[in-house]
Amino acid sequence: AQSVSQHNHHVILSEAASLELGCNYSYGGTVNLFWYVQYPGQHLQLLLKYFSGDPLVKGIKGFEAEFIKSKFSFNLRKPSVQWSDTAEYFCAVRPSGTTDSWGKFQFGAGTQVVVTP
Amino acid sequence: DTGVSQNPRHKITKRGQNVTFRCDPISEHNRLYWYRQTLGQGPEFLTYFQNEAQLEKSRLLSDRFSAERPKGSFSTLEIQRTEQGDSAMYLCASSLSQGLVSHEQFFGPGTRLTVL
After folding, report:
1. Cα–Cα–Cα angle for B105, B111, B114, nearest 5°?
2. Which residue of B has its CA nearest to A8?
3. Which of A42, A111, B103, B111 could bond to B21 as cystine, CB 3.0-4.6 Å?
4. Contacting residues for A28 by C-beta, under 8 A, at least 6 apart
5. Is A69 on the interface with B (CB under 8 A)?
6. What percentage of chain A's residues is helix, strand, coil (to nearest 5)?
7. Given a cut of 90, is residue A85 above it in pLDDT?
């Protein structure tokens, strides 16, 4: 069975610090990869996605992620965080393939990020 | 607002009662998904529809749970004989599937269920 692992459950950092959140998945085939964010009191929103091509993808609000196929990883990064980046971040994986019969996402447990002023 | 909407946003019920939630997806999206999220966890897949057809159900979806999407637009999720363990946030998402390609999912605000 496929699974998604997010290494940190809670991260606390100061404004202007750099952020990197780890995400590893287990699945032997081709995957689509996503990072979602949930700001306090809001619903899940897509930060960025990787389907194919350049493994370094850029998303909204200055976030980027790098897909390293050999490491089954899709880590999220932001060079300089702001207080408004306080949120919960979820990595999600979906197998892709010729049938697309598996439509559901597998989410990680999430990482709560708190940015202090 | 043309996003995914869910009603009600909150539901408090007594154990043993039945509850029904509604999800209205983005209008042109043909796929609709239900997830359950508990505190400290990511969303867990329950089931999904392609138009009106329910294509897959998780093992998490016991026989007390039933979902419908009768006209391929809105969907309902019913939980019969609720148990305290059913307390969670129930999320709905929709996406557009074109041929063999399925695009990213857009999530609704969720329905928070509390079973007393």
Report:
1. 140
2. B40
3. B111
4. none
5. no
6. 10, 50, 40
7. yes
